[in-house]
């Protein structure tokens, strides 16, 4: 796409270096991450008024793979962080996808397993407990990326008063080698506490 510097209402605002054909998304120069065939830039959705990630893929890298080309055209739109990945027998994948606030650090390295879902689940629990989106203290995607990649926890975690709930979330957010699988997580006492709460509400378990 050609470089474009569109008219912006605030002359002092950061200029776009590129916009998509629809005129909705504008890309900044700031690079958030990169891999063998893709680069992820900070961008802005002019309709929603929010920052997004602009994912660029080198199509020539897949010139001999028609199936991948079809997949690219059916999925890698502006604002999406990557391709949905099919995890094989090695339990590892090599593409960036997801919402920055809920993405495990290893996703940015494009070398991860299904344990990234445990990390995201922990962030979801954190959001439900605090009623805040994780890393809401950050005002752009780049700052979220820097905190996540540095292992800095979201500020909302400090607002969790129940120590057992906090410990459960921390367990989900641990480094990959220390992060439990879904089967292991189901054995956590956190879920026993949830069952007890339901029974106290009058539901009798068989």
UniProtKB/TrEMBL annotation:
SUPFAM superfamilies: Protein kinase-like (PK-like) (SSF56112). It is an enzyme of class 2 (transferase). Residues 1-21 are annotated as: Disordered. GO terms for molecular function: ATP binding; protein serine/threonine kinase activity. Gene3D superfamilies: Transferase(Phosphotransferase) domain 1. It comes from the Eukaryota. InterPro entries: Kinase-like_dom_sf, Prot_kinase_dom, WNK_Ser-Thr_kinase. Residues 1-191 form the Protein kinase domain. PROSITE patterns: PROTEIN_KINASE_DOM. It catalyses: L-seryl-[protein] + ATP = O-phospho-L-seryl-[protein] + ADP + H(+); L-threonyl-[protein] + ATP = O-phospho-L-threonyl-[protein] + ADP + H(+). Its EC number is 2.7.11.1. Keywords: ATP-binding, Kinase, Nucleotide-binding, Serine/threonine-protein kinase, Transferase. This is non-specific serine/threonine protein kinase. It comes from Corchorus capsularis (Jute).
């Amino acid at each position: 796409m050609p470089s474009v510097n569109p008219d912006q209402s605030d002359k002092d605002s950061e200029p776009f270096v590129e916009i998509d054909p629809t005129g909705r998304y504008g890309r900044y120069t700031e690079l958030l991450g990169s891999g063998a065939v893709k680069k992820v830039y900070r961008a802005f959705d002019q309709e929603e008024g929010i920052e997004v990630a602009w994912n660029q893929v080198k199509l020539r890298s897949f010139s001999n793979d028609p199936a991948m080309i079809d997949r690219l055209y059916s999925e890698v739109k502006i604002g999406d962080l990557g391709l949905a990945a099919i995890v094989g027998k090695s339990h590892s994948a090599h593409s960036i996808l997801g919402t920055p606030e809920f993405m495990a650090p290893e996703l940015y390295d494009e070398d991860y397993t299904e344990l990234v879902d445990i990390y995201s689940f922990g962030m979801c629990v954190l959001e439900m407990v605090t009623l805040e989106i994780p890393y809401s203290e950050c005002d752009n995607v780049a700052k979220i990326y820097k905190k996540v990649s540095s292992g800095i926890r979201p500020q909302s975690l400090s607002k969790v008063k129940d120590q057992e709930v906090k410990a459960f979330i921390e367990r989900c957010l641990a480094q990959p080698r220390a992060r439990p699988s879904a089967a292991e997580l189901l054995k956590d006492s956190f879920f026993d506490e949830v069952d007890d709460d339901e029974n106290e509400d009058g539901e009798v378990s068989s």
